[in-house]
Every structure is written in structure tokens, then in C-alpha cells.
Amino acid sequence: MDALSVYVVGAGPAGLFAARKIAAAGHQVTIFNRDVRPGGLAEYGIYPMKHHMKAGLRKQFAKILAMPNVEYFGNVALHCNGPLSCDSLRAWQPAAVVYAVGAQGTKKLGMPGEDASGVYSAKDFVYHYNGLPPFSSQDFSTGRRVAIVGMGNVMVDIARWLLIDQPGSKPDEVTVIARRGPFEVKFDEKEFDYVEQFLDRRAFRDELARVSDVVAAAGQDVGAVADSVFPWLKTEPAAPPPSRLSFRFLTSPIAIEPDSDGRIERLRVVDNLLIRQGEDTKARATDKESALPFDTLIFAIGDVADPTVGLPYGKNEYLSNTDPADPDRACYEVFDPATGSALPGNYLVGWARKASEGLVGKARFDAERGCEYVLKHLAQATQGVTPTAAEMLDELQIVNDSVVTKQEVERLFAAEARQAQALGVPEFKYPTNQEMLAAIHEGQEAHCAA
Known about the structure:
The protein is α/β, with parallel strands linked by helices. The mean pLDDT is 94. The chain has helices at 13-24, 41-44, 51-65, 86-91, 122-129, 153-165, 189-192, 201-217, 225-228, 327-330, 360-378, 389-397, 406-423, 433-449; strands spanning 5-9, 28-32, 70-73, 96-99, 105-106, 119-121, 145-149, 173-177, 244-248, 251-258, 264-277, 280-293, 296-299, 303-304, 333-336, 341-348. It folds into two domains: 5-104 and 304-404, NAD(P)-binding Rossmann-like Domain (Rossmann fold, 3-Layer(aba) Sandwich), CATH 3.40.50; 108-301, FAD/NAD(P)-binding domain, CATH 3.50.50.60.
């Protein structure tokens, strides 16, 4: 089988593991990445203090980039109106394009007041404290009373950051706002262990009493919460924590009320009923409203695909094919509404295919599964005259003289390792693209001098 040229857009776990599988089959892979450094979710989504996990993933990714038939162009954003677009990629006539661009859109509820200051999406907030430019240098200030909407692991990570690792002053209270009840939590117990010391047990028991009748109507007993989902209620912290973590169940936000300076002052909410639907439950709003005082609100309700990438787009997601004869294959293919069929040789993997679905392990599985179909396509595919890596770099640099190659990524990592060693910290990352590019340039000069 002749080696064909395949483009992978995105260098998070899904993109990198897709690149490895395709390159291991003997094809030439070129990775295009929005960020300077590769890693995506593994670099900018995993909690910053999980140094061992991040270091292990970086080693795996470095091995992928070191493959001789893998090229990397970083600091290159794919945009429907940009110099690099889906159309311009196809104009280079690769045999296939794999989109692993993640879910970079922001999910909102469409509430009045969502544009108030102090209101953030979890994705952007996590990017900020994980040091992703430009979020790393933007204002994500928090106040004394913080609300987090959502009950998944991302909520726990944000609460952990606010209560433990955030530099400077910590909030007085972090309140989790949940549409459903205590039995519908989505976080892992081992993750909540990091913040359980802050859980206000008395307030939590009061909250269980408040919702007990509604929960009972759905066939659930709050008396079983400690045994099934909140074992921390059986213990008490040795000393009162400096900040408190509380929960507000069966509650949906409906509006944000800003103060005279435009910052959130109150969150208007509505109480919910809990409706049993087979094995599942669903929240249904009542007409009982109230206003809760908060000066910061973070939505941890998942992410959506970014429509500006230029792929065919539906409700919050890129369009994938639906073929009842082979649904497993079809769900990885980009659907073209203009023709009513799959766009030949174009594939979706990872969060680009299904937003907020699992973390690194799931992204890897999805990418490798999707690439089984990519390789089947390549076995029968042909391609035009594709440009060499040097020719692509020349063309990209016409409009962007800061394209980063995989050799330059190595210089960046070496520079950051030296900084970490000098500062005596486990990890160091330059907070802006300009500083990363300067470090790469200095490393290049040192290399040439040697």
C-alpha cells in the first residue's frame, strides 16, 4: 500500500492518538494545531496539580511527534474566514482529513444577564488557571460568594481550585447549583475527596430536608444519601474549614441580576420537581422563584462545538453521517447537508464528534476507533499532488510568521524545563504565546551557536 497524506486538525489526545495510528500504518500525517504547544485537553484541561499524569502524557505525545512521518504546525487556527480553512486544507488534496478540534464553543442557557462580569464558562475558567493563552492573561476574578452550576468532575476541579489552590484570598462560600437531586451527582468519589473537608455538613443535611418530599415523590429516600452517594456525611472535619462548600439541589438558574457596576449580584432561580422516567430522572421547573446572592457564577454544564471552524454545523455540534446500514462507521464521517451524504475522506473524532464525552482515555479510544475507518478509506483512496511539509510551511508563513514546528516544540519544552528547575517547581509554562515564541527563538539561537 502506498503512503498517502493525511491531515489531522487538533493536537489534543484525540488528534495525537489519531495521528499515531495513521502514521503507524505507514502514511504521512501532518498535524495542524490552534495552540503553540500540543496536548489540548491533556495540557490545559487536566487539573494543574496532577503533575505526574501530565508528565506521562507529554512523554507519550513527544514520542508521537518524534515519528519520522509526522509533521506538526502549531499556532495555526482553523477558521471558516481565516487563511487556514476547511476549504484550503482540501485544496492541498490530502487523501483524508481528521478533525479533532475538540469542543471549543461555550454552552449557555440564554438567560437574561449572562453577559454580566463575574460570569464565566467552566471551559474558559479552566483554561485560565491552566495557563492557556489568551485566557491565562484575561480577567477571571472571583469574589466572596461563588456559584458553580453543574455536578460533574469539572465542578469539583473548579471548587478545588477556588478553595485550595487559587492564589490569594479564597471565597467565603462555594455553592453548587444542581437541576436535579443528590442521587444524580456525576462526579467521582475520589475527586470529591479533595474538597470534602470544606463540605458544610449541617447545611447539607438542611438542604436534604428541604428537598426530601420532592425527592421522595420520585421514589428516592434522602435517608440513603450518606450510604450511596455522600459517604462524607458520616464524618466531620477536625476543625471548621476557612471556607464552606454547600449544595442547592433541584434548582435551575433563570436570570442574572447585575449590580450598578455590571457585576453579578444575584442569581434568580426556580425550584424544580424531580420526575421519574424509567430508570432515569428529569427536572421539571415549578413557578416558585427566589434570588440568591452571588458575586461570581461559573457554568460547568458541558461544552459545544465551535461553529466558526467551518464544518457543517447543527445544534451545538458538527454534523456527522447517519447510515443505518453501518452506523458505527457513519458516526465518524462528516455529513454534508448540501449533498445529503458523507463528505468523502473527512472524519470527526473525540470531542469534535461528541462534545464533553469522557476525558483522555475516552478521547484516545474514540480516535483509534474512528481511525479504523480512516484506514479502510485510505486502502482504496487516491490523492492529488499534495505539497511537501516545507511547501506548506512556506505558504502558512505568508500570513503567519509564527508557525511552530515540532522541532520548535522540543525547544519550548526544554526552555520550560530549565525554568521549572531554576524556580524549584514541578512544572513551568509560559503564560503567553509571545513568551513561548521568544523562548523558542532563544533556544534556536543557542542551538545554532553550539
